[in-house]
Hints:
Rossmann fold, Archaeosine Trna-guanine Transglycosylase, Chain: A, domain 4, five-stranded antiparallel sheet, 3 domains, 13 helices, 24 strands, seven-stranded parallel sheet, alpha/beta
Amino acid sequence: MSDSTDLYVKIANHDNVAVALKDIPEGTEVLGVKAVMDIPRGHKMALTDIAEGENIVKYGFPIGHAKAAVKAGSQVHTQNTKTNLSGTLEYKYEPVAPAAPDTLLQGRTFQGYKRADGRVGIRNEVWIINTVGCVNKTAEELARRASMINDGRVDGVYTFVHPFGCSQLGDDHENTRTILADLVKHPNAGAVLVLGLGCENNTVPEFKKLLGEYDESRVRFLVTQEVGDELVEGVAMLDELMSVAAADKREECPVSELIVGLKCGGSDGLSGITANPLVGRFSDSLIGAGGSTILTEVPEMFGAETILMNRAESEEVFDKTVHLINDFKEYFLKHDQVVYENPSPGNKDGGITTLEDKSLGCIQKGGQAPVVDVIPYAGRVEKKGLTLLNGPGNDIVSTTAMTAAGAVMILFTTGRGNPMGAPVPTLKIATNSNLAERKPNWIDFNAGVAAEGKSLDDTNKDFCELIIEIASGKEARNEINGYREISIFKDGVIL
């Protein structure tokens, strides 16, 4: 940050705006410029006169251009700013030198569960995975009954309802099947009951083929049309699965075994200044220790994509990143939608003006580490380091995709607040202290202290300790609240 006080921050040297860390009253001087109006917290103030058509610069990059002349000291927001974004683009690979490895977490360990396939989980739960939405309520009742007889054998019995598994075609049907198969094999699940109906497209016999090899003592199948009382049969199976998983015990594991998803939602003007850079610091720390992180929300890379492209560790990864961006833009255009239909009304209320503004803040979560891989929607992480995952910005769809990709924990930054949770621990990191104080039942960590005099490096030290505690068994707020859900991406028709 080039200039910062407890009242405002100018992020990069040649920015022509500053961001209010607190409400700036009219007449207040900021870097020699008097505010000519009240500037709300998280919003931007012009540091110089900006001519019509001139770029608005924040984070050192354009976030749009002035629709009309902007007077120094004025608020810079949707009323006078327009995006520079359009359709697909051509890109040139201009690699940047990788940052020095972060050593903060090197040598650190956590207490996790080593699985037979070599992966490591941070929970030992029993999951009920539905092949089709028709058995959602059956699954919920089975989870309720099994929880009553768990008696502490496992960390819990959970199901994640969804409406699909039938009446889908092509990629939609295969994506549903693959996401569900990924969940069956997730390392946070010590055992799984796959629950089917019997007449769906995603039949249990076909689903077994997709699963490939599995431990028959830990993955059981129940087709409800083929038994008398599916609740009696299901509870008996779950009882056996809990007993099998109960033999698993936590043991010391290096942090290099962690795969962590990076997400933001309900963002505000401080997201790219406090919480997202904090998560980026953590990502660099984990990768420096040999671990893995996942960055998705592709539409929220638009306008900042070249930063990620030039961090690609090879030209092959660069090419994959170009396709990731342009293919998602084509998805918008195919549906006759503009690529910059973002930010949301809540984002704008919080001070985010254009998609470039949002994207430049969003990618802060990816830190400075090289991009080592790009994987498709429903793909799984295959390399250590920072992986880009194809997927939308929608909170539940993207957290589901990261879970399926192998994330055992998700870090979710928010400036407005959001209570939802993925099937895995979903830590909410507040961008501002006001939110953390108002919603302690939602928020796991307050990154707002980074706008109040505490350095990001010191904040990251505290944050890393919390991550290790969560990985070792401490419950995240979404777990305490019982908030766990999934949503699967749909693009095509439903029969």
